[in-house]
Amino acid sequence: MSRPADTELLAVALEEARAGLAEGGIPIGAALFAADGTLLGRGHNRRVQDDDPSVHGETDAFRRAGRQRSYRGTTMVTTLSPCWFCSGLVRQFGITRLVVGEARTFDGGHDWLAENGVEVVVLDDDTCVAMMTDFIAANPTLWNEDIGVD
Amino acid sequence: MSRPADTELLAVALEEARAGLAEGGIPIGAALFAADGTLLGRGHNRRVQDDDPSVHGETDAFRRAGRQRSYRGTTMVTTLSPCWFCSGLVRQFGITRLVVGEARTFDGGHDWLAENGVEVVVLDDDTCVAMMTDFIAANPTLWNEDIGVD
């Protein structure tokens, strides 16, 4: 099987983000794929739904992928540039590639990851930008809570 | 109430680490304290127990503290220098202080956090060192899995 295009990977993360929004949550989704394109785990931010500040899109996808002996060759795709928490996840576990939907509404750690050997692709996707722009405008306090801004 | 000494904070993290060891898990514990010394959450690594790679000591303590509007003035105490994942957690959420039991058996992101404004104290505690030294010697494969080493 040929490896899916990055836009196809992003489509999975976007589905997750939309599911989160429909649940009343913060619309950020992510997924972890094996080197051959197999989906290992997918998830979305559940701060509101689960009352759990540790469940960002990336940590949810990582957790749902279960225990893996190695992350070599894996790709994490996320609708939004990863915060330091999620960037640290990617770096610590040696996730090889990071596909970012957009980094305009939040500039996380993707440059730091690129400097530290992660292959980073920023798609600058207009749909992702619009979704977060609308969400942040409507929910500034909740958004600030999610990224640790007082 | 006066703020507890860092060694008292570490005693809570050590209790958690020992509880994890008794459960057959990786012996790393952590706790999050408010500025006035109130315990907000405590936890330990549960990779083995919960089959969940996202539950490190620090992420467990953070999660169990629940949603907080601000982490200003909080202290995270951990028996072991935090990995990038957990270091990113401390940085993203603006946790003010980090107390580390030891950084001899694993050199995580505590220096990076200090460079980025976190007040870091490394206690270099012999009990913490002995616990991890024994654990790593007996379980090298599990330990490497937990820190993403192939």
Automatic annotation (TrEMBL), chains A, B:
Q: Which CDD domains match?
A: nucleoside_deaminase (cd01285)
Q: Which InterPro entries match?
A: CMP_dCMP_dom, Cytidine_deaminase-like
Tell me the ranges covered by the CMP/dCMP-type deaminase domain, including all copies.
4-120
Per UniProt, what is one Pfam family of this protein? Answer: dCMP_cyt_deam_1
Q: Which Gene3D superfamilies match?
A: Cytidine Deaminase, domain 2
Q: What is this protein called?
A: Nucleoside deaminase
